[in-house]
Structure formats: structure tokens, C-alpha cells
Specification:
The protein is 54% helix and 14% strand. With 492 residues, it is of the alpha/beta class. It has a five-stranded parallel beta sheet, sandwiched between helices. The protein has a five-stranded mixed beta sheet with strand order 7-9-10-12-11, with helices on one face. A two-stranded antiparallel ribbon has the order 6-8. α5 runs antiparallel to α6 and α8 crosses α9. The longest helix is centred in the middle third of the chain and has 49 residues. The chain starts with 11 loop residues before the first strand and ends in a 13-residue tail after the last strand. 33% of the residues are buried.
């Protein structure tokens, strides 16, 4: 949902009134304005209709024979299938106690007969818009729950996969990955939790203030509030903090010149809504005697969409990490050659190392157009994990990491270059030896590059290193001629 004022599929509205003239009038008005309308002449027909077709909103008379509107609403709210349908009472009863009772049994609004057509239409559209926002929030919550469950499942699978990683170097790399991944997942989940709390707060304030505010506003003023919220949502301009202060000061001066009460506070709220100029269309709201409450309603309505956008962005970010985890955690127990995209595996590893990379590593990716090749993708992911992990460590998480992928002479070549201190010449010939390590005790087993070399050889390829201070390049060459019917021994 990109806008609060957009075209939706026609809403299904149930109109309940025992007076035929009233029923026909309301059905005609709503149908003329594009709604799908279902009439009911008494409470029994109304309850039956809600069980047979999906209803978005109900206009309900109170004085009806056999079962009055209060009893109908009570039954609707006691049924899990219908309790969330908004009910607007329409009645000639104008006593305050009648209205209080209507809200007490679950009504969301109250229109007094004889009614104005514009008032009915404004209230119907207001509550349909709120219902859509609630449904959108429920949908986002379900997506979040699904994402969380999928993440939990993937983490369970990842823990199971750890049992297969008998080499200590793989276990160490995986352990370091998990700590970074936890941060990368917790950050968007924290944003989602915060947005859900904000949306709940906005909805609570909207429902508390809306009946009173709607009673005092004209349909045009209600429309202006939605237009203000819509303007705020659709304004994608990015303004610096410094420029925001300047615009707010200018806005405050303009409001003061117009005689707007509490101009500084109103300018604050308008700035938060990214409304810095062109405020003339909204002056009826800004100069209203209850301007603070009306502006707060517009702010809360736009806040629902801002929160929804934050949830969507954070969910996509979490989903990306979940997908990378799923890919990385996959283990091919059959040890079969599979057709795969090399760069996808590299990007998966980069995603999992994002927490380390964003501390100060610049990534340069030079990927030539490459065909799919037969390989052992899970094992190659371990190659990219080891080389990228070593490169980031060599730079102390600050520097440039360049990854080149190209095709050359029947081989797929992947070069990973870092701007670290380099490999000393006296140990360069030993770095692929089993158990050789320059790391302090407990930080490495010395098996990482030995495992890498064996995996590359399994792909009928080679790995070489060129290193000078400030530039170390590992180049992996993989045969592009492997076929599924060519058996290759497992790692020695």
C-alpha cells in the first residue's frame, strides 16, 4: 500500500433497516458511489448475510422489530467471524445515552436521522480506510511471524549442519558468522518491533479521537486531513538536518504571519510530516480552533503508512539474510555435481559477512557474464567463506575488497583481492600446508587454506596467491568442463 487515498476494489456494505424507504435510499446512494451493497430488512437477515458473504462495513438501524440494532451488534461482536466488521449505527434516537449504548455494544460510529448524504459517505469512507489499515497491519504481522518462523527453522538447520563440519576451521568460521548474522537479523527485527508499537499507538489515538473529531468537522475538512496525510506519505524528498532546521524556521514565520496559534509546535509537526511549504491548501485545518488535534490525526494516519513502509523494508532485509542463511546452511549429502551460478554463492557469503563489511570495508564487484557451471556449490561456499574471512581479517575490517569473476581458457576464475598488509615472502610457500597458521593459539587451526586447496583440486582447478604490502590476491581457477557423469573422489 503506497498511499492512504488510492483506488481499492469496491467495498461490500451491508445496510440494515426495517423501513423500506430508508433502506432503498441508502442502497441507492452507496451503489451510486461505487460500493457493493447488500440490503437486509431485519436483524435475522443481517446475521444470515454476514455468514454467507464477506462484509466490509455495516450500516445498522436501532429501532427494529423482534431484534433491535443493539442486539444485532452484540451478536456480531460475539462471533469470531464477524466481530471485526465495523458497525455504524444510523438512528433517529438522538439521546446521549443511546449513543453511549451504541458504542458500548461495539459500534464505531453513530449517524443521526435525518442524515446528510455527504456525512454518511464521509463516515463510511473513513471507517473503510481505517479497516484497510488494520487489515494491512495484520498482514504485516503475519508476514513477520512467518519470517521469524522461517529464520528459526533455518537456524535449527544451521545448528544441525554444524555437526557435519568436523574440521575445526569450518567450525570457527561458522561461529564467527553466526555472531555477525545475529546482529544483521536483530537490527531489522528491532525496527519492525518499534514500528508495530508505533502503529498500535497511532491506531489507539485515532480510535479515541475520531468519533469526537468527525462530529465537529465538515466532509471537506475530513477530506483535507486525508490529503495532508497522503501528501506526507508521498513526499520522498530527503532533507538534511541542517536544511530541515532552516525550513522549519521559515515555516514558523509563515504560520505566525498567518496568525496561526502555537505556530512553533505546529511547524514542528508539519516538519515531521515533511510538509515544509505549499501549506495554503491546509490552512482550514491549521487555523481551526482544534488545529492541534486535527494535525495530530493527520500525523497519526501518515504514521501508519510510515510504519508499514519500515516493516516492509526491514522484512526484506531480514528475508535477504534468511535466504543467505538457507543457501549457506544447505548441505548436499549426496555429494553430486550441480549446475550453479558462481556469483550467487559469493554474494551469499558477502551477505552473511555484512556486519563485518559495513564497519569499514569497501566492496568492489567486477562480475563478467558467466554461464552456469557444474560444481559442488556447498563446498565452494566454504572456499569463498575462508578467503573473504581471511581478507577482512587481514585488513582489520577497514580497506578495499575487490572480487573479480571471469572466464578464461575453459576455466572460471575468481580473484579476491584485499588491501591488507600482505603475506610475508618467507611464509608464502607454506600457507597451504595443513596446520600452518600465523594466528595466536585458539584463533585458527591452520586447516582453512588446506581445505580450500583440496576443494579447488576436486574441481580440477588451481589456487594461487600474489602478495605485496597493500595488495594480496588469491585467484581460484575452476574447470568449466566438469559433468555429472564424471566421478570425482571426495576430499582426501
Amino acid at each position: 500500500m503506497n498511499d492512504l487515498v488510492v483506488n481499492f476494489s469496491p467495498a461490500n456494505i451491508l445496510v440494515v433497516d426495517d423501513t423500506l424507504a430508508n433502506l432503498q435510499l441508502l442502497v441507492g446512494i452507496l451503489t451510486e458511489h461505487g460500493y457493493k451493497v447488500r440490503p437486509a430488512k431485519d436483524g435475522f437477515q443481517a446475521l444470515s448475510a454476514t455468514q454467507s458473504v464477506p462484509i466490509d462495513l455495516i450500516l445498522l438501524d436501532i429501532n427494529m422489530p423482534q431484534m433491535d440494532g443493539y442486539e444485532v451488534c452484540t451478536k456480531l461482536k460475539s462471533d469470531p467471524k464477524t466481530r471485526d466488521i465495523p458497525v455504524i449505527f444510523i438512528s433517529a434516537l438522538n439521546d446521549v445515552l443511546d449513543k453511549v449504548k451504541a458504542f458500548g455494544v461495539g459500534g464505531v460510529d453513530y449517524v443521526t436521522k435525518p442524515f446528510q448524504v455527504e456525512e454518511v459517505l464521509a463516515r463510511v469512507e473513513t471507517h473503510l480506510a481505517l479497516q484497510r489499515l488494520q487489515n494491512n497491519l495484520l498482514s504485516k504481522n503475519e508476514e513477520l511471524a512467518q519470517t521469524n518462523q522461517e529464520l528459526a527453522n533455518i537456524l535449527d538447520r544451521l545448528q544441525a549442519t554444524q555437526k557435519e563440519l568436523i574440521q575445526s576451521e569450518k567450525m570457527a568460521a561458522l561461529g564467527q558468522l553466526i555472531s555477525g548474522i545475529a546482529h544483521e537479523v536483530n537490527t531489522p527485527l528491532g525496527a519492525i518491533r518499534s514500528s508495530v508499537n508505533n502503529i498500535s499507538k497511532y491506531l489507539q489515538e485515532i480510535f479515541e479521537d475520531l468519533p469526537r473529531i468527525v462530529d465537529t468537522l465538515s466532509p471537506q475538512e475530513i477530506k483535507l486531513i486525508f490529503q495532508m496525510a497522503s501528501y506526507s506519505i508521498n513526499n520522498k524528498t530527503i532533507v538534511s538536518i541542517k536544511d530541515t532546521r532552516k525550513l522549519k524556521r521559515a515555516l514558523t514565520r509563515e504560520l505566525e504571519e498567518l496568525g496561526v496559534h502555537d505556530a512553533d509546535s505546529i511547524a514542528d509537526t508539519l516538519s515531521d510530516m515533511k510538509i515544509y511549504e505549499d501549506i495554503d491548501p491546509f490552512l482550514p485545518i491549521l487555523t481551526h480552533s482544534d488545529s492541534q488535534k486535527l494535525l495530530e490525526l493527520a500525523y497519526n494516519l501518515s504514521g501508519l503508512q510510515r510504519g508499514s513502509n519500515t516493516i516492509e523494508t526491514a522484512s526484506e532485509r531480514a528475508a535477504k539474510v534468511v535466504f543467505a542463511l538457507k543457501t549457506y546452511a544447505h548441505y548436499d549429502e549426496k555429494n553430486e555435481l550441480l549446475s550453479a551460478n558462481l556469483t550467487s554463492g559469493i554474494d551469499t557469503v558477502l551477505t552473511l559477512y555484512q556486519n563485518s563489511i559495513k564497519q569499514g570495508v569497501t566492496i568492489v564487484q567486477n562480475y563478467a557474464e558467466m554461464p552456469l557451471i557444474y560444481c559442488y556449490p556447498d563446498e565452494l561456499n566454504q572456499v569463498w567463506t575462508n578467503l573473504i574471512h581471511n581478507a577482512i581479517q587481514a585488513m582489520d575490517n577497514k580497506g578495499s575488497l575487490t572480487i573479480d569473476v571471469r572466464q578464461e581458457g575453459g576455466f572460471a576464475k575468481v580473484s579476491i583481492t584485499d588491501s591488507g598488509q600482505g603475506v610475508p615472502e618467507e611464509i608464502k610457500s607454506r600457507i597451504f600446508e595443513p596446520f600452518f597458521t600465523t594466528k595466536p593459539p585458539g584463533e585458527g587451526s591452520g586447516l582453512g587454506l588446506d581445505i580450500v586447496r583440496k576443494i579447488v583440486k576436486k574441481h580440477q582447478g588451481e589456487i594461487e596467491v600474489n602478495s605485496v604490502p597493500g595488495k594480496t590476491m588469491f585467484t581460484v581457477s575452476l574447470s568449466m568442463n566438469l559433468q555429472p557423469d564424471i566421478a570425482v573422489d571426495s576430499l582426501p
